[in-house]
C-alpha cells in the first residue's frame, strides 16, 4: 500500500508560519509571559492577568499571537476573543466553542447557552405576539414585569442602569417582579432568571466548567484582544470574576490576557495590582527596528535611516517598510508609496490600494474592490505585513496603514473614491437582499447576516456621499431602534467609522453622540430616539416613525400615557401613518378604551386596507370586547389577507371555541401551530379545546410542550388545572390552580375555576372565598358572580 501523501497546509497555516518566522523583537515581553508559566500559582511573582497596552500599530496583536504560541508550548488550553463578541454570553459561547475544538467541551455551559438562545428567541416571539393576551390572563403589573424583563434580556448589557438584568424600578411595578410571571418550580425559576440575569446565571456555570477542565491541563489561557472596544461591556464582569465568592472559585492555573490601547480602569482594577502584570508597549527601539530590517535583508544604512525616520518605530510600519523600503532620499514619497514601493506591478499596487476601502474583505469583495486582472490577488494580499486576520473571520488592513491609504484615495481622486464605494455598496446590497429572503420584514435587524450587510451598505454610501447619505443612515437608526435596539450600537459605530474614513465631522459627531447614548442607557432605545428627534433634520414621516418606535418602547414598560402621547404626536406629524394609529389602538385597548381603539383602527385600515395586521387588531379588539361574531368575521378577513400568519388563526380559533365550534377551533389551532411550532399561546388554547372535546391526553401533551417553550406561565398551570377538573382529578386540579396563583396572585380566572374544584371536594366555604377573591379582582366577572349565587351565597 503506497504511503499516504502528507496533508496539505491551509492558507491560514502558511500565513501564520510566515508571520512567526518574521517576528522579531519584544524579547523581554515574551520572556515575561513564558516565565509566568514556569511559576506555580502560589508563587507571589505569578500573575493571573496580563494587560498589554499601547497605541495602534505598536504590535499588540502580533505579540498576543506569540504569547498564544508560548501558551500552547506550555500545554495550555487556550481561547481567543476579539471585538466580534460584544456581550458576556457571546464571550462565553466563543470560549466554549474553542475549548470544544481542542477536545475539552464545556458541556454544562453549552446546554445552558442553548437554553438561553432558545429563551431569547421565544421571548422575542412572545413580545411580538403580546397583543394576543386577554386582559384577564395576566395582571397589568405581571405583564409589565414580563415585558421589562424580556426587553432587558434582549440586549444583555453589562453597563448602565440595566447591567446584567432588568431595571429594578420597572420590576417594582410588577406583581412580584419577573418571577410573578415566570417563576414557580425550581427549574422554571432558573430559566426565568436566565432571561432576566444571564450574566449572573451563566457565569457560575462557566467558572465551574473551566475549573473542571483545568484539572486535565497544565494551564488555561484566555485572550481578549481589542479590549479598548469591549471594555465598556466586559470590564466590570471580568473584574468581578476575581472577587472571591462572586461567581465561584476560578482555577489557580487560569491566566487571562487583555490587549487594548488604554490603561485598565483604576476604579475596578486598582486593588488587584498584585494579580495584574501591566505590559505597556511602545514603539520598537532602534535596535529592534534594525534587527527586523536585518532579518528582511534591508542593511544599506541610508535606507535603514529612512525607514527609521518614516516608521517612528511602529512595528507595523517597520515591517511594511522593510518589505518595501524604496530608495533612500525620496523625501517627497508618501507613506503609501513607501508601503508599496517594493511592488513593481502597477496592477497589484492599484489593487492593494483599492482593497483598503472595505472595512473587512473576503475573496469575493476583493474582486469588487479591485476589478483588475491580477492572478492570485487574494493570496498575495495575505502576504502583505499589514493585512490582519482577526478571530472573527474576514481579513482587514491594519488601521495605521489603512488610514493613509484611504486618505490618499479620497483626496487623490474624489470621483474614483465615490465610484469605488458605490460599487462596494452595491455588492453589499446584493448580500443584504439575499440575506432577507424568507425573513419577517419587521425583524430584519435581529438577523446577523442581514444586519452586517446592511451596515456595510450604510458605511460605503456614507463614505461616498456623507451629507447626502446621512438621512438614510438616520432613518436606519429609527428602524433598528424599533426592531432590535441592541444592534443600535453597531449602527452608531458605523457612523463613527464612516466619519473618520470620509473625514466628515458631521458623521463623526453624530456617531459619537449616538454611541454614547447607546452605551449609557442600556437596551432601551429611548435616549437614541430622543437624540434623533431633537437634533436630526428628519422629515415629518421619519419623525413620526421615531415617535412610534419610542411609543412602543414606552408601551412595553407600561408607560401607557407617555406611549399615547408619542403616538398622538406621530399622528399630528404624519396623519397618514397607519402604524401610529395601529399602535395607539393597541395602547387604548390595553386601557380598555375599546371604542377609541376601534376608531383608530378605522383610520389605519382606511390608510392601509390590505395590511393584515391592522385587520387582525380589529378582530382581537372585538374578541376582548366580548363581541365574538363580529370578531370572527374580521378575523376571517385577516386570515384571507395573510394566510401564512399564525397569530390571526390563533385568535380566530379562540373565538370559535368560545362560540362552541370546537372542531373548527381545533383546525385553526392546528394550522397556526403548523405555521409557528413554538407558538406557546396557541398550544395552551388548543389544550383548552381538546379538553372540551374530551381529548385529555392531547390537552396535557400540548400543555407540556407549552411549558417547555415558555416555562412558568400562570395560564399554562391554570389550563392544566382545567384538564384535571374535567377528569375529576380535583386534588390535582387544586394543586395546579395553586401554582398558577403563586405565579400570578391576581389571576381572577384561576380563583374562579379553583372554586369549582374545591366545591367538588366538599370544601364549599373555601370555594366561596375563592369566588369572592375573583370578584374583588374583577368586579365585572359575571361568571364568578353566577357561580356564587348558584352555591347559595
Q: Could you list some keywords that capture this structure?
A:
793 residues, mainly alpha, five-stranded parallel sheet
Task: Break the fold down into its secondary structure elements and pairings.
Blueprint (H helix, E strand, L loop, with lengths): L10 H12 L4 H12 L10 E5 L6 H14 L2 E6 L6 H14 L5 H22 L11 H16 L12 H5 L6 H4 L3 H11 L1 H17 L4 E6 L2 H15 L12 E7 L5 H4 L6 E5 L5 H10 L5 H11 L3 H9 L11 H5 L6 H9 L8 H7 L7 H5 L5 E2 L7 E2 L1 H14 L1 H22 L12 H17 L1 H18 L4 H15 L2 H16 L5 H10 L4 H17 L3 H14 L4 H13 L3 H14 L4 H13 L3 H14 L4 H13 L3 H14 L4 H13 L3 H14 L4 H13 L3 H14 L4 H13 L3 H14 L4 H9 L3
Parallel strand pairs: 1-4, 1-5, 2-3, 3-4
Antiparallel strand pairs: 6-7
Helix pairs in contact: 2-3, 4-5, 5-6, 5-10, 9-10, 14-15, 20-21, 21-22, 22-23, 22-24, 23-24, 23-26, 23-27, 24-25, 26-27, 27-28, 27-29, 28-29, 29-30, 30-31, 31-32, 31-33, 32-33, 33-34, 33-35, 34-35, 35-36, 35-37, 36-37, 37-38, 37-39, 38-39, 39-40, 40-41
Amino acid at each position: 500500500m503506497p504511503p499516504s501523501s502528507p496533508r496539505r497546509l491551509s492558507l491560514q497555516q502558511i500565513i501564520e508560519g510566515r508571520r512567526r518566522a518574521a517576528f522579531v523583537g519584544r524579547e523581554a515581553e515574551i520572556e515575561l509571559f513564558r516565565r509566568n508559566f514556569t511559576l506555580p500559582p502560589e508563587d507571589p511573582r505569578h500573575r493571573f492577568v496580563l494587560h498589554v497596552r499601547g497605541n495602534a500599530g505598536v504590535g499588540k496583536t502580533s505579540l498576543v499571537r506569540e504569547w498564544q504560541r508560548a501558551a500552547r508550548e506550555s500545554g495550555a488550553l487556550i481561547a481567543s476573543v476579539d471585538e466580534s463578541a460584544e456581550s458576556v454570553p457571546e464571550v462565553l459561547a466563543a470560549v466554549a466553542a474553542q475549548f470544544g475544538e481542542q477536545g475539552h467541551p464545556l458541556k454544562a455551559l453549552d446546554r445552558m447557552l442553548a437554553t438561553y438562545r432558545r429563551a431569547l428567541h421565544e421571548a422575542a416571539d412572545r413580545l411580538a405576539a403580546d397583543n394576543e393576551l386577554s386582559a384577564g390572563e395576566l395582571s397589568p403589573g405581571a405583564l409589565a414585569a414580563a415585558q421589562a424583563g424580556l426587553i432587558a434580556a434582549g440586549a444583555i448589557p453589562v453597563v448602565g442602569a440595566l447591567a446584567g438584568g432588568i431595571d429594578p424600578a420597572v420590576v417594582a411595578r410588577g406583581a412580584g417582579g419577573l418571577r410573578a410571571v415566570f417563576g414557580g418550580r425550581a427549574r422554571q425559576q432558573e430559566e426565568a432568571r436566565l432571561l432576566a440575569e444571564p450574566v449572573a446565571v451563566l457565569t457560575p456555570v462557566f467558572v465551574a466548567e473551566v475549573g473542571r477542565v483545568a484539572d486535565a491541563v497544565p494551564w488555561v489561557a484566555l485572550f481578549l484582544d481589542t479590549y479598548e472596544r469591549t471594555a465598556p461591556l466586559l470590564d466590570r464582569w471580568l473584574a468581578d470574576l476575581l472577587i472571591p465568592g462572586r461567581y465561584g472559585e476560578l482555577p489557580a492555573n487560569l491566566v487571562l490576557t487583555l490587549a487594548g490601547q488604554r490603561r485598565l480602569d483604576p476604579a475596578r482594577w486598582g486593588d488587584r495590582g498584585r494579580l495584574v502584570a501591566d505590559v505597556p508597549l511602545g514603539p520598537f527601539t532602534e535596535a529592534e527596528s534594525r534587527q527586523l530590517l536585518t532579518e528582511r535583508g534591508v542593511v544599506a544604512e541610508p535606507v535603514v535611516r529612512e525607514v527609521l525616520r518614516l516608521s517612528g518605530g511602529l512595528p507595523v510600519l517597520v515591517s511594511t517598510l522593510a518589505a518595501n523600503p524604496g530608495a533612500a532620499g525620496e523625501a517627497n514619497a508618501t507613506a503609501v508609496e513607501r508601503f508599496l514601493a517594493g511592488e513593481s506591478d502597477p496592477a497589484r499596487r492599484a489593487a492593494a490600494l483599492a482593497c483598503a476601502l472595505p472595512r473587512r474583505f473576503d475573496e469575493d469583495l476583493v474582486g469588487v474592490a479591485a476589478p483588475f486582472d491580477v492572478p492570485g490577488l487574494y493570496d498575495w494580499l495575505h502576504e502583505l505585513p499589514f493585512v490582519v486576520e482577526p478571530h472573527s473571520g474576514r481579513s482587514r488592513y491594519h488601521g495605521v496603514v489603512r488610514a493613509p491609504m484611504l486618505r490618499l484615495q479620497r483626496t487623490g481622486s474624489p470621483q474614483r473614491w465615490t465610484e469605488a464605494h458605490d460599487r462596494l455598496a452595491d455588492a453589499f446590497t446584493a448580500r443584504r437582499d439575499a440575506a432577507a429572503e424568507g425573513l419577517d420584514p419587521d425583524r430584519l435587524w435581529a438577523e446577523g447576516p442581514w444586519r452586517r450587510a446592511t451596515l456595510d451598505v450604510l458605511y460605503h454610501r456614507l463614505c461616498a456621499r456623507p451629507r447626502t447619505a446621512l438621512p438614510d443612515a438616520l432613518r436606519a437608526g429609527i428602524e433598528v431602534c424599533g426592531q432590535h435596539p441592541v444592534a443600535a450600537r453597531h449602527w452608531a459605530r458605523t457612523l463613527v467609522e464612516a466619519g473618520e474614513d470620509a473625514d466628515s465631522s458631521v458623521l463623526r459627531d453624530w456617531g459619537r453622540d449616538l454611541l454614547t447614548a447607546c452605551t449609557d442607557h442600556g437596551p432601551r432605545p429611548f435616549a437614541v430616539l430622543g437624540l434623533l428627534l431633537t437634533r436630526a433634520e428628519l422629515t415629518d414621516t421619519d419623525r413620526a416613525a421615531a415617535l412610534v418606535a419610542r411609543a412602543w418602547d414606552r408601551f412595553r414598560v407600561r408607560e401607557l400615557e407617555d406611549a399615547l402621547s408619542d403616538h398622538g404626536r406621530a399622528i399630528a406629524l404624519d396623519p397618514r401613518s397607519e402604524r401610529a394609529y395601529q399602535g395607539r389602538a393597541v395602547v387604548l385597548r390595553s386601557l380598555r378604551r375599546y371604542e377609541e381603539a376601534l376608531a383608530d383602527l378605522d383610520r389605519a385600515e382606511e390608510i392601509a386596507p390590505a395590511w393584515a395586521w391592522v385587520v387582525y387588531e380589529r378582530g382581537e379588539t372585538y374578541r376582548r370586547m366580548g363581541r365574538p361574531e363580529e370578531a370572527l368575521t374580521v378575523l376571517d378577513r385577516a386570515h384571507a389577507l395573510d394566510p401564512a400568519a399564525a397569530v390571526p388563526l390563533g385568535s380566530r380559533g379562540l373565538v370559535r371555541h368560545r362560540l362552541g365550534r370546537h372542531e373548527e377551533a381545533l383546525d385553526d389551532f392546528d394550522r397556526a401551530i403548523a405555521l409557528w411550532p413554538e407558538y406557546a399561546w396557541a398550544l395552551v388554547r388548543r389544550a383548552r379545546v381538546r379538553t372540551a372535546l374530551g381529548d385529555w391526553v392531547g390537552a396535557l401533551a400540548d400543555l407540556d410542550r407549552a411549558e417547555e417553550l415558555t416555562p412558568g406561565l400562570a395560564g399554562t398551570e391554570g389550563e392544566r388545572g382545567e384538564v384535571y377538573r374535567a377528569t375529576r382529578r380535583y386534588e390535582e386540579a387544586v394543586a395546579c390552580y395553586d401554582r398558577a396563583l403563586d405565579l400570578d396572585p391576581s389571576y381572577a380566572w384561576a380563583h374562579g375555576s379553583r372554586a369549582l374544584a374545591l366545591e367538588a371536594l366538599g370544601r364549599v366555604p373555601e370555594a366561596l372565598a375563592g369566588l369572592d377573591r375573583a370578584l374583588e379582582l374583577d368586579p365585572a366577572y359575571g361568571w364568578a358572580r353566577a357561580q356564587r349565587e348558584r352555591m347559595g351565597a
